[in-house]
Amino acid sequence: MSHSTPDTTPCVTTIAGTGSYVPERILSNADLAKIVDTSDEWIVSRTGIRERRIAAAGETTSDMCTKAARLAIESAGITAAEIDLIIVGTVTPDSLFPSTACYVQQNLGASNAVAFDVSAACAGFLFAMQIARHFINGGNRSTALIIGADKLSVLIDWTDRNTCVLFGDGAGAAILRRRTPDDEATASGLLSSVLASDGNLTGILHAPGIGSAQTLPPNPAVIPEPIIHMMGKEVFKAAVKNTCEACETAISRAGLPAADLDLIIPHQANVRIVDAIRERLGLPPEKAFLNLQKYGNTSGAAIAIALDEASRSGRLKKGDNVLLVAFGAGFAWAASVIRW
Ligand SMILES: CC(C)(COP(=O)(O)OP(=O)(O)OC[C@H]1O[C@@H](n2cnc3c(N)ncnc32)[C@H](O)[C@@H]1OP(=O)(O)O)[C@@H](O)C(=O)NCCC(=O)NCCS
After folding, report:
1. What's the CA-to-centroid distance between 297 and ligand 1, angstroms?
2. CB of 233 closer than 6 angstroms to any ligand 1 atom
3. Mean pLDDT across the stretch 292-316?
């Protein structure tokens, strides 16, 4: 596809504010080495991760979402009553139903919103972003709260060194709104997007245990443990192949050469995957935003937390061209170019 092929969706929607939250408790690589046969050296060299945050026992996904959302609302300078759409991207809802988004709606008192969850694992925040973008572009809604949040620590098998070193808990949020004349003057907005999934790859990363495929055990009081199953190398390959293609399409649809990107905010799963994507696009290391060393892979929250940190730290500047790219279980992946 040529660089001049534009996204057919008009640029009507922009990001008005962001917020994030991570739990207080830090679990370092050295802590993990006390419970499984691993080492700080192995984890850092294979993934880049040094520590992650673990939610407290009673701390739910909606609690984390609410904290991140309050900061996003404050940074956008709006009230909860102005929000007319709430979408939470999560695979660790508080309960099977109602949606986590409805709990967040209740916590915020956002009584004018319609609220629902989207299940796209680590791509959940970008899926939520594009769904909200279409609602706003279509004129149906004007102010959306989108959240990516997960408490994967409840799904982890803490005896499995292949998976337990990778993940952490957290939440990130953004307010999307119809562009104002000021936004139009700075040309900020969501420029392009690619959403994709491949159901043939459901088996490479999944968490069976609770759901309609599960038959109740003889004693219904004993609920089977949901646990993450992952084929690491297959996930790695699917991530690199699919996201590289999606990035190229998103950049092309935005009508930009890759060299015009100021920053990539990638899913924070593994620094080697980030390097592969960045190198394919011909971009230097300083153009990739990384915080996985502090938080590990926070699933749906990862890009949302990184976006908020990049914004608050001044790494993102008005007018910057930013590529967001995520992948995860499904297999599901997404890429989006925004102008900050
Ligand atoms: C999981 C991952 C880090 C493993 O890295 P890798 O280079 O592929 O490592 P391998 O699977 O080849 O494992 C090499 C060895 O390290 C061992 N190993 C695995 N985890 C380990 C750990 N935490 N500590 C020490 N050794 C470990 C393996 O058992 C294997 O040992 P063996 O050779 O004796 O069998 C990597 O495949 C990956 O990041 N995949 C993508 C995962 C991901 O992003 N998931 C989330 C998607 S949203």
Report:
1. 14
2. yes
3. 98
Q: Is the pLDDT of residue 321 over 80?
A: yes
| Cβ contacts of 120 within 8 Å, gap of 6 or more | 89, 126, 127, 197, 300, 328, 330, 332, 334
Measured in Å, residue 43 CA sits from the centre of ligand 1 at 9
Q: Is the CB of 47 under 6 A from ligand 1?
A: yes
267 in active site: yes
For ligand 1, atom 1, name the residue with the nearest CA. 232
Burial class (CB in 10 A: 0-12, 13-18, 19+), 199: exposed
Q: Is 161 in the pocket of ligand 1 (CB under 6 A)?
A: yes
Q: What is the pLDDT of residues 58-72, one digit of tens each?
A: 999 999 999 999 999
Q: Which CATH number fits domain 7-185: 3.40.47.10, 3.30.420.130, 3.60.21.10, 3.40.190.150?
A: 3.40.47.10
CATH 3.40.47.10 maps onto the chain at 7-185, 187-339
State yes or no: is 297 an active-site residue: yes
Catalytic position from the list 247, 267, 270, 291: 267
**CB of 270 sitting under 6 A from ligand 1:** yes
* Structure tokens belonging to residue 201: 């790859």
What per-residue confidence (pLDDT) applies to 210?
79
Structure confidence by residue, pLDDT tens digits, 166-215: 999 999 999 999 988 877 777 789 999 999 999 999 999 999 887 888 77
Q: Which of the following is catalytic: 122, 164, 244, 247? A: 122
What percent of the chain has pLDDT above 90?
Answer: 87
Q: Which CATH architecture has domain 187-339?
A: 3-Layer(aba) Sandwich (3.40)
